[in-house]
Write a structure and sequence with these properties.
single chain
């Protein structure tokens, strides 16, 4: 399903690019928006008749955005969050607890190291 939606989005992007490139320029760009030489064609102009290419670009753009939203939701749900404490440094297997240290000879049952003995200082 995910692969099908990606292929559909790719196809929609290609069709959308062709439709946009087939449209004729509306003139002036940003310079014509504020009024320019022909104020009736600027920002405050009346509603212009939409052509088939304009409608196709709106529909293609809406479809592209909808597919992008659906695919982003699907990809975020596919990954189950895991704790980094349960993974080793490679992130592939859970970490097991280390084996306990053996008891010291002498029967104390503790795992701490015996105290270090230092030789007594000698006076020359």
């Amino acid at each position: 399903m995910y692969t099908f939606l990606i292929m559909l989005m790719l196809l929609d992007g290609l069709v959308l690019g062709v439709v946009i490139l087939l449209q004729s320029g509306k003139g002036g760009g940003l310079a014509a928006m504020g009024g320019g030489a022909a104020p009736t064609e600027g920002l405050l102009a009346g509603r212009q008749a939409t052509t088939m290419l304009t409608r196709a670009s709106w529909i293609g753009g809406f479809t592209f955005m909808l597919l992008a939203l659906i695919l982003s939701i699907m990809s975020s749900r596919a990954q189950q969050p895991t704790s980094i404490l349960e993974q080793d440094f490679r992130g592939s297997a859970p970490v097991t607890a280390p084996a306990p240290a053996p008891a010291l000879p002498g029967g104390t049952g503790t795992t701490s190291a015996p105290p270090a003995t230092t030789p007594a200082p000698t006076n020359p």
